[in-house]
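Sample pair:
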Amino acid sequence: MFNKLIIVISVLFLSSFLSFSQYQKFADSYGILSTVAGQGETDAGTVEWQPDFEGGLAINAELARPHFAMADTAGNIYIADKESHGIRKVNTDGMIQTFAGTNVAGDNGDGIATECQLNNPNGLWVREDGTVYILDLGNNKIRRVNTDGMLETIVDDDNGISLGRGLWVSKNEDSIFYANASKIKLWTANKGIEDYATGFSGIGNIVQDKNGYLVVTARSANRVYRISKDGLSKEVIAGNGSGTGGGDGMLATETGIEGVRGVWFLDDNTYFLATHEGSQIWYVDYQGIIHLFLNGEDDDDSHFGDGDNYNTPGYKISEARSVSVDYDGNLIICENDMGFIRKIENKYTYYYTSLFSKKENAITLNAYPNPAKNYVQIQFELPKPQNAVILIYNSIGEQVKCVHIGQQKSGKKSIELNVSDLENGVYFFTLKTSLETISKQLFVSRLN
């Protein structure tokens, strides 16, 4: 009996260790946090789109309660700018323009997308080639904008669409799922509209996982469900039904994910979650363990961290509405009523095998030993010559050390730092260069 207990404990420990190890490798692949669209001046319920925003910098444009953002393979980002009644497109140069809608609520039929009225577009889905599907909530329609810029109606729900946010479209467009009040509706060319799954509370986003199951977030229930393929049953895969409990490193099903709205699956069936009231981005690994990826607080004014590594200490976001991942692995977050679209760059390509392939021009950073006692070697590799500085922050974000190492040639480097004056605890060491900033954790411990 005792031996069996030891085996069980050992298996649990190994499982936890592998989960942490896998997550650390995954988390280290992400870097700089930035704002890609929105200046944050919009008051809730106010239409703010102005003609001079067209063709200008996306970070200077005002967005009105955007609810979802997603990219095509070229890296263009499309935004459902709900209360300005338009779909915006941010190109890879950071410029923004109207992709669909006239910025006046209404329905004047199909045609040239920028001449067709939309009414509170509350969701969208983007195909690889830049074909965009729009959940045109106020008009009770699902509409498609083709790559030639022409808009046409695909689904017209005569019974109305209530509180619709989620939209998912299959690659060959033979199935369209969309949220409608407490139901997930399914449209097919053969059968038209039918109820697919029911009994949800406060539906957020929907997406299909890599096994072909539809996954739906339920904001009011603080849960995430995987729906059976016949739509008749659902399984809780994340959330304990409340806003508290569990937490980082615990089972996702035992953790409070308050007001969960966003969900996005990766190729290995791990996934991200975005919480509104919780103001957090979570990552759930292949063992169902949840990890706090990005922290924030429930306040529209909590918008920080641009230009820094995403995992530096402190709150970064508030009231996250959605999360998606582009084809380069970058994370795209739609944030609060003030109208921000944020991005966290991915320095690596993430494969189904959970392995990482370093991108060209990526900087590597490590510390040895870690935990450190009195001295630590900061080891890094630069792909090209650049200026560099090493900073160390304590757990509350205060800078405790700064070492200017100046212009460096490309190649591997090692800098020894004296940390004997630092107390035991968790720190963050940061390498800032003229091209990139990377941060990682450093543990200082003199306990024997």
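DSSP finds one helix and 34 strands in the chain.
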